[in-house]
Every structure is written in C-alpha cells, then in structure tokens.
Amino acid sequence: MERKINFFDISLRNEYLKKISNTTFDVIVVGGGVTGAGICLDSSSRGLNTCLIEMNDFASGTSSKSTKLIHGGLRYLEQFKLKLVHETGTERAVLHKIAPHIIKSEKMLLPIIRGGKLNRFTTKAALFIYDLLANVKRVDRFKILSKAETQYQEPLLKKNKLLSSAIYSEYRTDDSRLTIDLIKKSFSYGASPINYVKAIKFIYDNEHKVIGVTCKDQFTNNSIDIYSKYIVNASGSWTDEVLESKNKKLVLSKGIHIVLPKEKLNIKQSIYFDALDSRMIFAIPRGKTVYVGTTDNKYEPGINNIRVSKREVKYLIDSINNCFTKFLDFKDVISSWSGLRPLVNDGKKNTREISRKDEIFISKDGLISIAGGKLTGYRKMAERVVNILVRKYKKKIKSKTKNILLFDHDFEFCKTKSYEYGISNSTFNKYYNIYGDNCLEIFKIFKKEVNSTNSEDKIIIAEFIFSRRNEMCQSLLDFFSQRNSVVYFDIERINDYLKILEKYVIEKNIMSAKNWDKELNDLNNYVKEITIFI
Ligand code: FAD
User: Fold this and answer.
1) 127-167 pLDDT per residue, tens
2) Residue 284: helix, strand or coil by DSSP?
3) What are the DSSP calls for 119-155, one per residue?
4) Is there an atom of ligand 1 within 6 Å of 66 CB?
5) Is 180 in the pocket of ligand 1 (CB under 6 A)?
6) pTM score, two decimals?
7) pLDDT, tens digit, for every residue of 82-103?
C-alpha cells in the first residue's frame, strides 16, 4: 500500500515535492487562498486526486486581508443583488455549522444618524429584506433601538447626530485560519496541497490543451512539472497574470483596515457606521484590539505594492472621530493590513459599484478560471467549479462539503481534555479560539515535548513546533501572520515571543543563526510595512 506522507510537516518537503512530481493528478488548483482551498476540499472529497499549489504561504493573499466577516452583504441590497444576498446570507449558517470554532455569530449595531446613509425607514426595510433573504431565525432577527437604548448599548457614540439604531445578526471569522483548516481537511481526503510552489507556465498537449504546469520551488528555484487532466486557476488578484490574457478580466480594488488598542476605542460590540463620505465601515473588537475598515478604491499600480497610505488611514480615523466621542490620531494605530479585491470587470468605473459576484470562465485550452466572489461564498463557488470537473470526468457525485465538519472534537471535549494537559482557562480559550480542536495537539506538545519551567514560554514554543509540523508553516512571518495573526492583533508582544523562540530554536538546532536572522529580517520588514504608512 502507498505510504501516506504528512504533507504538513515542513521537514518532509522534499518528499512531498517528489511525490507530487511523480503523480498525474485529476485536478491541479493554482492558488491557496480560500477559493482554491474550498475547491481542493470539494474536489478531493468527491474522489478526485487533487493537488493545490500556492506561490507564497497559504492565505497570504486577499484571504488574510478581509474584514473577516461571513456576511450576506447588507450593502449589496442597494444594488438589488438579491440573489447574491440570498446565497451568501443563507450560507452563513452552513459555515457556522461546519466550523463553529472560527465562524461565530455576532450582533452588529448600526447607528442611524441625522444625514447618514440610512434613515429609520430604509434601515428597517433593508434589514427586513436581509433577514428574510438570509433565512434568519425569528429570535435573531433585527431590532430597532431608541436613541436612549442605543446610548446604553454603545455609550461611545456621539449623541448630537444620533437618532436611533438597529441590531442585526452577522457572523465573524478568521479568514486565514478558515483557509488553512480547509486545506488541512482536504489532505485528510487525499489531496496534496503545497505552499511556496509557483505556477510559471502551462504545459500543453499536441492539441494545445493544458495538461500540466511547470512550477518553481520558491526556496530552491528548482523547476518542477506537475501533470493533470484539468487545471483550475484560483489565483484571485493574480488571475490575469496567470491567464496571460491581453483582455484583462479583473479590476482590482484596494481595501485597508487599521488596528487600534481596545482602550482607545473601547466599543462594546461590532458596529457598522457611517464613514465621512457616503460609505459605511465596520469597527470590530478582537481580543485587546479593535479593527476598523474598510476602504474601496480602484487599485492601479503593480499588485505587489499595496502598502497602506496615510490618506487611507486618515479617512478611517476621521470617520471614527466623526462618529465616536473619542479623538484618535495616527499614533494610536498599532497595526494595519491591506488587500486587493479581485472583481470581475463589468465595465463600471467606480469599484464600489462593481458586483462582488463570482464568475467561472473556461479558456480554449481547457483552463478553468474562477474569479470574483467573496470569502463568504467560497463553498458555493467551489461547488460550482467541481460540478464542472465531475461532469468532465462523467461522474455523478454531488458536493459533500455542506456536511464536512472542519473539526473532530467540540468545545466541551477540548476544554475537559485541556485540564489533563495542565492548561489554564485563559490559555485554553485563547488557543481554542484560534485553532479549534487543533489546540489539543499544541497542548500535547506543551505537556510532553517542551522542557521549560515558564508556562508562557512553553506554550508559544509548543505552538511554533505544531505549526511547523502540522501546518506547513515555513517561516516566522507565516507563523505570526497567517497562523496566529499576532502581527495584527498582538503586535505589542511580538518581541517577547521572538526572544523565547530564538533561544529555543538556536539551542535545539532547529534553525541556524543565519536562517533565524533572515526570517527575522523578513518579519521585521513586514511589521514595518503594516505600521509605517506611506
Ligand atoms: P486570494 O486569497 O488572493 O488567493 C489567491 C492565491 O493565489 C494567493 O494566495 C496567491 O499567492 C496565489 N497565486 C497567485 N498566482 C499564483 C501562481 N502563479 N502560482 C501559485 N499560486 C499563485 N469577503 C467576505 O466574505 N467577507 C468580508 O468581510 C470581506 N472583506 C473584505 C475586505 C477587503 C479589504 C477585501 C480586499 C476583500 C474582502 N472580502 C470579504 C473578499 C474576500 O476576502 C475575497 O473574495 C477572498 O479572500 C478571495 O480569495 P481568493 O482565494 O480568490 O484570493
């Protein structure tokens, strides 16, 4: 019987690459964001031998730079995108069921202000339709609050313009963790996902049909050919680049978020509020921070240069200062992120008006590309792509992902088990909220493998070992961004964590001092990018 390799242990990378280049797959997916990850899981769970290649780290593109909401998109009602709102709205409950550890229901407060985008009547009408289209349970349907009730609910809102508010149901998530969980799940169905492998050019047969991809191992620069009958391009903002087409299919829209310490904007819950122009933006508490966003502007220059600008930060800060009683300044911003929305070009000039609908296009050479869409719609998008693939293979297997749970053990089981590993309540909550039942593996390493008297040191070391062994985490930057988001939400402690890890890594000979310095340099450069605005 063929030996199964744990594709997620970075020390076995050469073995994975050998296995991948010696296999002819049924499907290759280019792109390890949420779209590619969803396709990889759907396809492998329907029995197709699937390989996924990602040129950087999994979820390092837009799928770690979103507002991290699983939402129907209230604002799409404005554009009468009823079908989109219905699909994404009803999808929220499905995603919550399959990944309750990272898709959590969240009440959103929507203040109604004098001169704001929505008045009491339009808010009521919009939320009524929204709840209806999304099949929201009666108990969770929206409520209108009076001015006094709103002030009680959120004392930081400025009183002068406030008229009343609405509270409605949304879901929040962790976009990069969702993507990684999907990729790991696909592996349990036999898929072969790998990061830091870039698709460079397609390989064609005599009839000019794509039958493979020549790739570059980003660490060694070695070339690898991977073969498959069908190839899916799920490269998000890079779709046009991968397609090499002259007619651009996409328009890219840039969106940024800023992160503030909780004490600077100590809101009690998530708020969807009026920005300075006619848009609305979110303020969402997360741990010891609150993040605020987003912007939506057409992106022109090269896509690797997406730094957050002072102008964008000012727009968000001024909008906060206009709505809340707090007065914030640039120096209050402790971190940020910036992402590109891959929007399907429909001829509209203003990116805010371009639909967030996804589209599948099949090129003459057989390449299947999917672009557009939203994080919330990833599962349905994947289903549509894999429906095409199974039809091509003349199979009649329906998508199963609606019922594929992204966890094996529930909260109660994990909590009980964590006591056996000597884990405190707060540590359990922190790690369960990031890793779901994978936290048990971290706690096992904590208990059995790490020798240190300080339990704070021990747990960060255990997390680091886990991510390298079980999550294909290749660098310090991958660890502190896509794996646990410390660069965004716990940036003030990053140097403490680094001191602990450096000592351990060098002592145990896990990395040479030279490699450590290189990884540290990459991490520091990224930290500079997200903390210094241009
Ligand atoms: P990506 O995540 O960008 O993945 C594409 C991947 O392809 C990248 O990782 C890239 O490295 C890889 N790749 C590219 N070229 C190659 C190659 N040659 N070889 C190998 N790999 C390659 N949606 C929601 O539902 N809720 C939200 O709250 C929300 N907020 C958003 C806020 C902002 C600011 C933005 C920008 C988007 C938001 N979205 C939201 C939309 C959502 O984030 C995106 O639709 C989704 O993440 C896109 O995923 P993707 O996999 O298509 O793209």
Assistant:
1) 999 899 888 889 899 999 999 999 999 999 999 989 999 99
2) strand
3) -HHHHHHHHHHHHHHTT--GGGS-EEE-HHHHHHH-T
4) yes
5) no
6) 0.96
7) 888 888 888 999 999 999 999 9
Question: Is 284 close to ligand 1, i.e. is its CB under 6 Å away?
Answer: no
Which is nearest to 135 in space by CA: 74, 73, 72?
Answer: 72
From ligand 1's centre to the CA of 281, what distance in Å?
20
CA 152 to ligand 1 centroid distance, Å = 38
Alpha carbon of 201 to ligand 1 centroid (Å): 21
Helices 494-507 & 513-531 angle (0-180, nearest 10): 170
Contact 215, 226 (CB under 8 A): yes
Return the structure tokens found at 33: 């964001």
Identify the helix (H) or strand (E) that includes residue 337: strand 335-344
CA dihedral (359, 217, 472, 212) in degrees, to 10, reads 40
Output the CA 407–ligand 1 centroid distance in Å: 23
- The pair of three-digit structure tokens given for residue 179, joined into one six-digit string: 């993507």
* 3-state helix/strand/coil string of 346-389: CCCCCHHHCCCCEEEEECCCCCEEEEECCHHHHHHHHHHHHHHH
Pair of tokens at residue 534 = 């241009």
Specify the residue with its C-alpha closest to ligand 1, atom 18.
199
Q: How confident is the model at residue 301 (pLDDT cuts 50, 70, 90)?
A: low
Ligand 1 pocket residue status of 339, Cβ below 6 Å: yes
Confidence of residue 1 (pLDDT cuts 50, 70, 90): very low
Please identify which residue in the block is written with the tokens 């280019």: 30
Structure tokens at 41: 């899981």
What number is the average pLDDT over the span 246-267?
92
CA nearest ligand 1 atom 6, residue: 31
Q: How far is the CA of 59 from the centre of ligand 1 (A)?
A: 7
Q: By the 8 A CB rule, do 133 and 73 touch?
A: no
